[in-house]
Design a protein that fits this description.
alpha+beta; about 25% helix; single chain; four-stranded antiparallel β-sheet; 7 helices; 14 strands
C-alpha cells in the first residue's frame, strides 16, 4: 500500500504504483468542513513543488506540501485565502512521529514535479452542482453557470435584470473572495463586459454573507468552474476503491504499528462498515 502517516484528522499515503500521494480526510466534529467536502484526494507528486517539516504547537510536528501553481484548481481558486488550519496540504502529527514524518518528506522530495507552473490541472476537485449565496442560487452543469436571484437578497438591479446564464466560453476568469473576510463574494469575469461594478450590482457576481457561501461550499464550487474554464481534464486515475476487507486489513495494520489510536481505529472501522 505504500508508506503511511496518520495525523490529526487525515491520513497521507504514498502510493508507489502511481507515484502519487493519497490524502484521506477523517470525518469528525473537529475536522475542517472543507476537508469533509473534499473526502479523498489523489495528488500526483508532479503536482507538488515542495515539502517542509516544522515544529508545531504542543509537542507536534507539521508536514506541509506545496502545490505547483496551475496544478490544483482548489488552491488556485483559494489564492492564499485559506486559514492555516483548513489547508488540505497540511498534516499535524504528534512529536513522536517526527522521524517517520522526516522519512516521508524525504521520499516526497525525491519525486517532486519540475519547477514552475503546471501546464494543466493535475488534481481533481469535487464538482458541486449548486451553491447558495446571499443574493442568488448558483448552478453549474459543466458547461455553464446560472444565477437565480433571491427575491429578498438580491439588489433591485439584479432582480430587474432577471436570472443570468454564462456559458464557459463567455468567461475569462473566476475570482473567489473568502466569506470569512469582509466583502466575500464569487465573481465571474465575462468577456467584453465591464469589470468595475460592485458585487452587489455585477450580474456575474454572487455575494456571500453569514450562513451563505461558506468556504466548504463556495471554494469547491469556484474551483470546479475554474477547472471547467481552463478546459482541461485531469489525466490521472481516480482514487482506487478497494474492497471492504482490504480496507479493514489496512486499518488493522496501521493500528498495529501505532499509526492509529484505539479511538481512531474504531471510528474509521465503523465508518467503513457503514459505507459498505
Amino acid at each position: 500500500m505504500g508508506d503511511v502517516l496518520a495525523g490529526n484528522h487525515a491520513v497521507w499515503e504514498f502510493d508507489h504504483t502511481t507515484n502519487s500521494m493519497i490524502i484521506r480526510f477523517a470525518r469528525g466534529m473537529r475536522t475542517p468542513r472543507l476537508w469533509h467536502a473534499l473526502g479523498e484526494r489523489l495528488i500526483p507528486l508532479e503536482a507538488l513543488s515542495g515539502v517542509s517539516l516544522t515544529v508545531g504547537r504542543r509537542d507536534t510536528v507539521v508536514l506541509h506540501a506545496s502545490a505547483r501553481a496551475g496544478a490544483d484548481p482548489l488552491m488556485d481558486a483559494a489564492a492564499g485565502q485559506l486559514k492555516e488550519a483548513c489547508d488540505p496540504y497540511r498534516l499535524v502529527l504528534p512529536g513522536a512521529a517526527a522521524g517517520r514524518a522526516a522519512d516521508f518528506a524525504g521520499a516526497l522530495r525525491e519525486r517532486l514535479g519540475p519547477p514552475g507552473p503546471a501546464e494543466r490541472f493535475l488534481v481533481r476537485v469535487p464538482r458541486p452542482a449548486t451553491l447558495k449565496a446571499y443574493d442568488a442560487r448558483l448552478a453549474f452543469d459543466g458547461s455553464a453557470v446560472t444565477f437565480h436571484w433571491s427575491r429578498t437578497g438580491a439588489t433591485s438591479a439584479k432582480w430587474k435584470a432577471g436570472d443570468q446564464r454564462y456559458p464557459l466560453a463567455a468567461l475569462t476568469a473566476v475570482a473567489w473572495h473568502s466569506p470569512e473576510r469582509p466583502g466575500g463574494h464569487l465573481r465571474l469575469s465575462v468577456r467584453d463586459a465591464p469589470g468595475d461594478r460592485s458585487p452587489d450590482h455585477d450580474l456575474a457576481s454572487a455575494v456571500f454573507g453569514i450562513g451563505y457561501g461558506a468556504v466548504h461550499e463556495s471554494l469547491p464550487f469556484a474551483a470546479a468552474v475554474l477547472a471547467g474554464l481552463r478546459g482541461t481534464r485531469t489525466p490521472v486515475a481516480a482514487v482506487p476503491a478497494p474492497v471492504l476487507a482490504d480496507r479493514l486489513q489496512h486499518l488493522s495494520e496501521l493500528h498495529g504499528v501505532g499509526l492509529l489510536t484505539d479511538a481512531e481505529y474504531a471510528a474509521l472501522r465503523d465508518r467503513l462498515a457503514a459505507e459498505d
